[in-house]
Amino acid sequence: MSTELELPFRQDTQLTEVMRLRVQSLQQRGQKRQDGERLLLPNEAVYRLDFSKQSLGFLRWTVGLAQTGRLSITAISQLWTPDLTNLMTRQLLEPVGVFWRAPGDASDAPVQCYEADAHEFGERIAELATVRKAMYFLFAYADGCSPQSVDCSITFTADC
């Protein structure tokens, strides 16, 4: 028998701040990033997803955008240990989940997405959950979207 398990994405404010300080430090010293290093952009934040179970099957995304805008979610591979190493572009996984609310959309209209990519992305997260207790993501906000206007979770089926 399987049950539904909804996991909320939680912003990791401490890790986001550490990554912003890395950018600031490079700018102050007039240095460039390492070859292949991925620096945090001003419109991005780091989020975390904690897995309470490891045997999961992707079911659905639940993304709420309180206003028009676009949210892009990029997963970070298990090779990144944020307390020890800089984030490298090779550690970013594809596909990216892209969700948006267009100007003129009714407030009760569902958030739009590239469904095939979002489904593949969810399945990839479920696969990685088999060997992970937690996973990190970059949330990029655009076109009026902001952390305050986003509510995001992912639902899996879990074997009891």
Structural account:
The protein has 2 helices and 9 strands, in the order E-E-H-E-E-E-E-E-H-E-E. It is an alpha+beta fold and 160 residues long. The strands form 2 sheets. Strands 2-3-8-5-6-7 form a 6-stranded antiparallel beta sheet. It has a 3-stranded antiparallel beta sheet with strand order 1-9-4, with helices on one face. The protein is globular, with a radius of gyration of 16 Å. 26% of the residues are buried.
What's a quick, concise take on this entry?
This protein has helices spanning 13-29, 115-129, and strands at 2-8, 10-11, 44-50, 56-65, 69-75, 97-101, 112-113, 134-142, 150-159.
* Share of β-strand residues: 35-45%
C-alpha-based Rg, rounded: 16 Å
How much helix is in the residues? Answer: 10-25%
Weakly predicted, low-confidence segments: none
SSE string? EEHEEEEEHEE
Neighbour order of strands in the largest sheet: 2-3-8-5-6-7
Strand tally is 9
Question: Looking at the structure, what is the overall shape?
Answer: globular
Secondary structure class reads alpha+beta
Q: Measure the end-to-end span.
A: 6 Å
Mean pLDDT: 92
Total number of helices: 2
Major beta-sheet overview? 6 strands, antiparallel
Outline the secondary-structure elements.
Blueprint: E1 2-8, E2 10-11, H1 13-29, E3 44-50, E4 56-65, E5 69-75, E6 97-101, E7 112-113, H2 115-129, E8 134-142, E9 150-159
Antiparallel strand pairs: 1-9, 2-3, 3-8, 4-9, 5-6, 5-8, 6-7
Which descriptors apply to this entry?
alpha+beta; 6-stranded antiparallel β-sheet; 160 residues; 2 helices; 3-stranded antiparallel β-sheet; globular
